[in-house]
Specification:
Two copies of one chain form a homodimer. Chain A is globular, with a radius of gyration of 17 Å. Chain A contains eleven helices and seven strands. Chain A has 254 residues and is α/β, with parallel strands linked by helices. A seven-stranded mixed beta sheet of chain A has the order 3-4-2-5-1-6-7, with helices on both faces. Helices cover 44% and strands 14% of the residues of chain A. The longest helix of chain A has 20 residues. The interface between A and B is large, with 36 and 36 residues. The structure holds adenosine-5'-triphosphate (ATP) (2 copies) and magnesium ion (2 copies). One adenosine-5'-triphosphate (ATP) sits at the interface of chains A and B.
C-alpha cells in the first residue's frame, strides 16, 4: 500500500517545497512511483517542476472543492506525477470552512488515486489552516522540514502539538516520521546550536542527513527543474539523494 | 496623524518579521513614536523583542476577537511599543470568518490607539487570509519585503493584485509604499538577477536600500533583541538604519 506523507511546517520559508520537489525526485530516481500533491496556492511545487500556470488543468482545487476525479499529470521526472496548484486554491480555504466533513475532503479525494503510487508527498502552505488540516487528516505521516534558524525552532512545539490534536480528533494513524534539518551552514554558530538543540530534544526523530545551504538548490526552480536534474553533483542534490536513502532504510526497518 | 503600515507578503520566510522589528527600532532610534502590532500567531515579532509568551497579557487576539481596549506594552526600545501575539490568534482566523464586518475589526480596534503614535507597523502572517486582510483594510500603506530568490519573485504579482482588490473593495487609500529587497547576496548570480528584474518592473517602488544576508540579523532573536541592539555595527543593522532614513525622506517628499 502507499505511504501518504504531509510535508508541513507553519513557519514560512523553511524548505517545505524544496524538500517535496527534491525528495520526490530522489525517490523516483530509485524506482519508486511517486505522486506530489501541491496544496499551496502559491503553486511553487508546480513551478519547480517547470509547469507554467496555463498547463495546470486538473488541479488540487478540483480535488478539494469540486470533488471531481482528477488525473495526475506526468512530469519531466520518470515515475513522478503531480497534481498542481493554482491561485484558485486561495478561495478553497474559505469555501471548505463552511462545508460539512471539511477536514476529510482531501482524504476522500486521494482515496481513489493513492493506490497507484508507492509514495504520495503533499506540499503544504505556511499555515495551520484548513488546507494543512486536510493534508494531516489524509496523511499517514508528517515530514517536518526545519530550517536551522532561531524562529524556526520556536515554531516546532506548536506544530507538534497541532499534529497531536489532529491525531486524537481525526486521524489515529498520523505520526511524525521525521524532522529534516534544512539550509544548514556549518560555519554559522547559530546553525550548529539549533542542530544540537533539536537532536537533543527530538533524538532519533531527526534524520541524520542534513540539507546544506547550497545556491544550486535555490537556482534550480528558475530553470524549472529539481536540483537533481539541474546540478546532480551539488551538495544540495546529493543531500536529497541521501535523505531518500535514509527514509527508505527507516521504512524497511519498521 | 499616524501612518499605519502593513508588512505583508504571503510567501513565507522573506523577512517580514525581521523587517518589522528592525525598521521599527531604527525609526524609534531617530525619535519617532512607533507601535508594532504582531498579528502572526507564531508571535515571532513579540519574541524578537524578548517578550516571553507568559508576559503577553493584552494581545492582538484581544484586539481582534474580544474587541476589548488593549494598552500597548513598552519594549526595551525607548519610544517603541508592542501589541504582542500568542497562539490564541490561530483561532481568531476562523472566528473572524463568521462575524459581520469581519475585515474591519483591526481597523476599528486600532482607531483609538493609532493616534498616539507616529507610525504603526503590522507584522503579517505568511498568507492572504482573514488576518492579513484585516491588516490591509486597517493600513494606509503596504511595505513588501521581498527575498532575493526565485520563488519569492513568483509570488509578487499575486500579492500586488490582492492589494489592488482590497483597495477597490474596502480601502481606497491603500497603496504600496515600497518594496524592500532582503537577504541580498551580491556574490550570488540569482540574487543579482532577481534585483535587476524587480527594479526593472517596479522602478521607484523599490527602495534603494537593500538588506544584505547577515548572520547577526538571524542571531539577534536568539538574544531577544533587535539587531540594532545586538550588533549595531553589523551590515544588517546598518541597512535597517539606512532603510528608515530612506523611508522618512520619501515621506517628506510626498
Ligand atoms: N538547501 C537550500 N539551500 C539554499 N536555498 C534553499 C535551500 N532550501 C530552500 N532554499 C530556498 O529558500 C527559499 C525557501 O524555501 P521553500 O520555498 O522551499 O520553503 P517553503 O517552506 O516551501 O516556503 P513557504 O513557507 O513559502 O511555502 C526558496 O527560495 C528556496 O529556493
Ligand atoms: N538579512 C538577513 N540576513 C540573515 N538572515 C535573515 C535576514 N532576514 C531574515 N533572516 C532570517 O531568515 C528567516 C526568515 O525571516 P523572517 O522570519 O523575518 O521572515 P518572515 O517573512 O517573517 O517569515 P514568516 O513567513 O514565517 O512570517 C529568519 O530565521 C530570520 O532570522
Ligand atoms: Mg512552499
Ligand atoms: Mg514572520
Amino acid at each position: 500500500t502507499s505511504r501518504i506523507i504531509a510535508i508541513a511546517n507553519q513557519k514560512g520559508g523553511v524548505g517545505k517545497t524544496t524538500t517535496t520537489i527534491n525528495l520526490a525526485t530522489a525517490l523516483a530516481a530509485v524506482g519508486r512511483k511517486v505522486l506530489v500533491v501541491d496544496i499551496d496556492s502559491q503553486g511553487n511545487a508546480s513551478t519547480g517542476f517547470g509547469i507554467p500556470p496555463s498547463d495546470r488543468r486538473q488541479t488540487s482545487y478540483d480535488l478539494l472543492a469540486a470533488e471531481t476525479a482528477v488525473v495526475p499529470m506526468a512530469t519531466m521526472v520518470p515515475g513522478l506525477f503531480l497534481i498542481p496548484a493554482t491561485v484558485d486554491l486561495a478561495g478553497a480555504e474559505i469555501e471548505l470552512i463552511s462545508t460539512s466533513g471539511r477536514q476529510e475532503k482531501l482524504k476522500r479525494a486521494l482515496g481513489d488515486i493513492a493506490g497507484d503510487f508507492d509514495l504520495v508527498l503533499i506540499d503544504c502552505p505556511p499555515a495551520l489552516g484548513m488546507l494543512t488540516l486536510n493534508a494531516l487528516v489524509a496523511a499517514d505521516e508528517v515530514l517536518v522540514p526545519l530550517q536551522c534558524e532561531f524562529f524556526a525552532l520556536e515554531g516546532l512545539s506548536l506544530l507538534l502539538s497541532t499534529i497531536e490534536r489532529v491525531r486524537e480528533a481525526y486521524n489515529p494513524r498520523l505520526r511524525v516520521s521525521g524532522i529534516v534539518l534544512t539550509m544548514y551552514d556549518g560555519r554559522n554558530r547559530l546553525s550548529r546550536e539549533v542542530v544540537a538543540d533539536v537532536r537533543k530534544v527530538m533524538g532519533e526523530k531527526v534524520y541524520r542527513t542534513m540539507i546544506p545551504r547550497n545556491v544550486r538548490v535555490s537556482e534550480a526552480p528558475s530553470y524549472g527543474k529539481p536540483v537533481l536534474l539541474h546540478a546532480f553533483d551539488s551538495s544540495g542534490a546529493q543531500a536529497y539523494v541521501h535523505l531518500a536513502g535514509e527514509m527508505l532504510r527507516r521504512e524497511a526497518a519498521l
